[in-house]
Write a structure and sequence with these properties.
mainly alpha; 217 residues; 2 domains; globular
């Protein structure tokens, strides 16, 4: 799992050499080479010649057919509106808010607002390398400058810290049981990944195993 297999730069070069867009989403878990190593021999043979691009291809075709400005920025926005927002970010908002009897609102996803945002040329949005330039100018004077200009701060989950403690033991136990009962993943490749301390990727595999255990087994 080390070296080129784990280096996203080689994955980007692979996509570019095939004439495919480099950007495949804002939350990629594994490179194509890693996926092939992790799959069991049976699935590796079943999916030979296929990649995640097969799932993205219809979205790209719609984008190419309808986008008034087929720029990289608009492709990134369009793809995440189709994939990352509904399947990851909005799902988290829904679960966390409903868990405490709240109903979240996402005004920036109002369809008229999104239409307006996508009608703005990319060169206007990213002028002089400044991200969120238009939004910052719109709220300047309404929100303190120190909030507008501070570095971006995410809300990541401390997976690495958890993985080094009890979550690591839980992950190994769950994956060991999963590997014993299924034929989806290669045991040696999974073991190499776990021993390498790749917390976030171990977290993805743990979620897959627990999803299978809860809803399929």
């Amino acid at each position: 799992m080390l070296g080129k297999d784990q280096d996203t730069r080689y994955e980007w070069l692979r996509r570019g050499s095939l004439g495919q867009p480099v950007f495949w989403g804002g939350a990629e878990a594994f490179t194509d080479a890693q996926k092939r190593r992790l799959l069991s021999p049976r699935l590796r043979q079943t999916f030979a010649g296929l990649t995640s691009w097969e799932a993205l291809r219809p979205i790209r075709e719609r984008f190419d057919a309808k986008a008034w400005e087929p720029s990289h920025l608009h492709w990134m926005t369009y793809l995440d509106l189709n994939f990352r927002l509904p399947e990851l970010l909005l799902m988290r908002v829904d679960k966390m808010s409903m868990g405490v009897s709240l109903e979240g609102r996402v005004p920036f996803l109002d369809h008229e607002f999104v239409t307006l945002a996508l009608s703005i040329p990319s060169a206007v949005k990213t002028r002089d390398g400044e991200l969120k330039r238009i939004l910052k100018k719109a709220v300047r004077g309404l929100i303190p400058d120190e909030l507008i200009d501070r570095p971006k701060q995410g809300f990541g989950v401390p997976v690495y810290e958890w993985y080094l403690e009890r979550l690591g033991q839980r992950t190994r136990a769950e994956l060991d049981a999963f590997l014993a009962q299924t034929d989806f993943l290669d045991r040696k490749a999974v073991s190499t990944l776990l021993n390498g301390g790749h917390g976030s990727q171990a977290w993805y595999l743990l979620n897959f195993a627990m999803w299978w255990k809860e809803y399929v087994r």
